[in-house]
Amino acid sequence: MTDQEKILNEVTGSDYKFGFHTDIDTETIPKGLNKEVIRIISAKKEEPEWLTESRLKAFSHWQTLRMPEWAHLKIPEIDYQDIIYYAAPQQGAKYESMDEVDPELIDTFNRLGIPLEEQKQLAGVAIDAIMDSVSVKTTFQDTLADLGIIFCSFSEAVKNHPDLIKKYMGSVVPYTDNYFAALNSAVFSDGSFCFIPKGVRCPMELSTYFRINTANTGQFERTLIIAEDDSYVSYLEGCTAPMRDENQLHAAIVEIVAMENAEIKYSTVQNWYPGNKEGKGGIYNFVTKRGICKGDNSKISWTQVETGSAITWKYPSCILRGNNSVGEFYSVAVTNNYQQADTGTKMIHIGKNTRSTIISKGISAGKSQNSYRGLVKVLKGAENARNFSQCDSLLLGDQCGAHTFPCLEVDNKTAIVEHEATTSKIGEDQIFYCNQRGIDTGNAISLIVNGYAKEVLNKLPMEFAVEAQKLLAITLEGSVG
Amino acid sequence: MLEIKELRVNVEDKEILKGINLKVNAGEVHAIMGPNGSGKSTLASALAGRDYFDITHGKIFYEGKDLLELAPEDRAREGIFLGFQYPVEIPGVSMVNFLRTAINEMRKYRGDKPLPAGDFLKLMREKKKIVEIDSDLTNRSVNEGFSGGEKKKNEIFQMALLEPKLAILDETDSGLDIDALRVVANGVNNLRTPDNATIVITHYQRLLDYIIPDFVHVLYKGRIVKSGDKSLAKELEEHGYEWIKQEVDAEV
Q1: Is 50 exceeded by the pLDDT of residue A304?
Q2: pLDDT per residue over B55-107, tens digit each?
Q3: Contact (CB<8Å) B92/A430
């Protein structure tokens, strides 16, 4: 083995830090997927009839679909009858006060760095904590309610704000959208709901933390964010799961709606269990995320740091319908060992003077495969649309792959669309230069990778940028230093 | 401070250094000169711990330690600094961040606490003056978009900040105009103390008008074939390397 290979082996041989399992009484339903199971889920959540019907409709549609095969991914066959579609920590329903929350649960989230007690939390961050199929606790609800902001679990929103759910659910990602969207629409369990009323600037970061705990379960959550005219919200999601030998399925839907002059910033730090070094286990992460800039001058910005999951299939997109609306996509996707990622975005320009920016930074190590897939579509009426795309790939070692699949469809001749792409390797020269200044190889790689991803990391809310930097270092660094 | 004994180095099975002997004491400045391909840069890299070649024979002692046993980062932490002939660019990593990491890694090695941000910035401002470096330069990414002269000044700036015991400057003068050359040389002279030592590797005598060496060694075909004081550099300037080549080749 050459020294270069040794170094790479060391830095890429990291351990997953969130792989513990919480031993807690969990209520589960039998494995399998059929109409009866869907009715059970709906009944457990005490849903109104229209929602049960909508689930069943989605299920019937899903049965007619086949799993998409166009992505640059090798996906082993998934047995949908071998998955538990509902698992909830005992006591099921939401806790009114901290005293009622199982200490094991509080401990679990503490170990993940997510304290559920409000006084212990980062100032200015409200959290909805979701374990398996249910929301465990949402913090700062009262403080936010004073401003008219609704931040609650999806199930609560169904009960307390049925009109909003009925109006917006499926309006951006209909159940007919794709295979996984149909599946989610049939079996989704919980998720977060945010509503920012007209003219309100949400004073704190809203955040959802997803945790898969129970074995053999899938997690299917939905997030719906609505920002009315002249409002602003910054939202962050994080996710982890225990280490298990079998693969687990996560198929989520995120829908966001920005009305006139509204701005929504959506940040993700995805750290699902990626599987072990031989590629065994890990989460299949098949997520449909889409936002619509409905009103004029609205803005939606996606920032994602993707370090986890065995397979990632995810394209946070923007429909730029309002005139002068702005869509942004900033992504860092890191793959290591046998991880596979096929991720990117779609920017659909419909309104006049719409602008979009895409910055994608892929980092591949080990034997992983990392693909960027993007679509920039400018419709006929989108006068003066502008897009700038930059897709960079960084390779560590010579056994990994980086791919880019950009697609441009421009139907308006006033549009200006730019695409730049680079591929680079971390050079031995760069590492030696750092070594010669007293910086060991592990720290050197961390420094270089963070420098490479800086443009994207800078877009994260400050509290989380530091976390994301550490996460990048952990994912790639491991035993060194 | 430094003692090199019978050092032989191979690059891809070809012997480049064929038995180097050199002793450097604290407070001294040594110049190593020689025609292209004589092995000057290989010697510098071997001292810094670059691993693309094999050390087949010999020993290097530095401050009583067996240098060849030390990893490159530990050599740096022990006070060895290499001024690179071709400093590399590291996009996205600011000079400030880079140097702060470097300084704190060295402090950690010595068992010191990290330098507080305020003190670090103060130190940077102080050292910038020594090399007349543009204050804008330190806000940019490491060497990215720097001109040739700026890169070399930046090396000396880093040297000033890291305060090495033994500085090895590999062709620091190459590609410099006369003004930049003066700045670089002044920097080196200002940093000279009785406790540190400098090895200046150069092709031309020009730099030695500004940095006055105590000893001059001529490296040719992998061996130090002649050593002397600064007058040897003058001689080379006047007569070129030919006469030495002839002398050496005649012996073979």
Answers
A1: yes
A2: 999 999 999 999 999 999 999 999 999 999 999 999 889 999 999 999 999 99
A3: no
- Beta strands per DSSP E along chain B: 2-11, 14-24, 29-33, 54-62, 65-66, 80-83, 90-94, 141-142, 166-170, 197-202, 215-220, 223-228
**Cα separations (Å) of B170 from A395, B84, B203?**
30, 6, 10
Question: Nearest CB to B72: which of A436, A450, A452?
Answer: A436
Q: Cα dist. A343→A159, A288, A313, A375 in Å? A: 34, 11, 6, 11
Q: Indicate whether this model's pTM tops 0.90.
A: no
Alpha-carbon gap, residue A403 to A423, rounded angstroms: 9
Q: Output DSSP code: residue B67.
A: G
* Sequence letter at residue A262: A
Smallest Cβ distance to A438: which of B50, B106, B141? B106
Residues of A in contact with B77 (CB under 8 A): 438
Which of A429, A436, A455 has its CB closest to that of B82?
Answer: A436
- Report the SS3 class of residue A316: coil
Nearest CA among A5, A79, A64, A3 for reference residue A396: A5
Q: Residue A216 corresponds to which tokens in the numbers above?
A: 């053999």
Locus of tokens 């070649």: B53
| Band of residue A481 on the pLDDT scale cut at 50, 70, 90 | very low
Taking only the tens place, the pLDDT of each residue in A14-51 is: 566 666 667 666 777 888 889 999 999 899 888 999 99
Q: Which two tokens stand for residue B23?
A: 């002793």
Strands B223-228 and B215-220: antiparallel
Within 8 A by CB and 6+ apart from B129, the residues are none
Q: Where are the domains of chain A?
A: 3-477
Positive or negative, the CA dihedral B138, B93, A440, B199 is negative
Q: How far apart are the first and last CA of chain B?
A: 33
> How many whole angstroms from its chain centre is CA B131?
16
In degrees to the nearest 10, what's the CA dihedral of B117, B119, B120, B121?
Answer: 90
Ramachandran quadrant class, A337 (left: phi over 0; alpha: psi -120 to 50; beta: rest) = left
Q: Which of A161, A94, A159, A96 is nearest to A129 (CA)?
A: A94
| Residue among A429, A439, A453 whose CB faces B101 most closely | A439
| Inter-chain CB proximity A435 and B76 less than 8 Å | yes
Mean pLDDT (chain A, rounded): 84
CATH number among 3.40.50.20, 3.40.50.200, 3.40.50.300, 3.30.70.1130, domain B2-251: 3.40.50.300
Residues paired with residue B167 on neighbouring β-strands, in sequence order: B81, B198
Confidence of residue B155 (pLDDT cuts 50, 70, 90): very high
**Residues belonging to chain A with any Cβ–Cβ distance to chain B shorter than 8 Å:** 3, 427-430, 432-441, 443, 447-448, 450-455
pLDDT band at B1 (very low <50, low <70, confident <90, very high): very high
Show residues of chain A in contact with B87, CB under 8 Å: 433
Q: Which residues of A touch B49 (CB under 8 A)?
A: 435-436
Give A5's Cβ-side CA count (13 Å radius): 5
How many whole angstroms separate alpha carbon A353 and alpha carbon A319?
13
Are B71 and A437 in contact (CB < 8 Å)? no
Domain segments of chain B as ranges: 2-251
The mean per-residue pLDDT over the stretch A364-392 comes to 93
Mean pLDDT score, A334-343: 89
**Average pLDDT of every residue of chain B:** 91
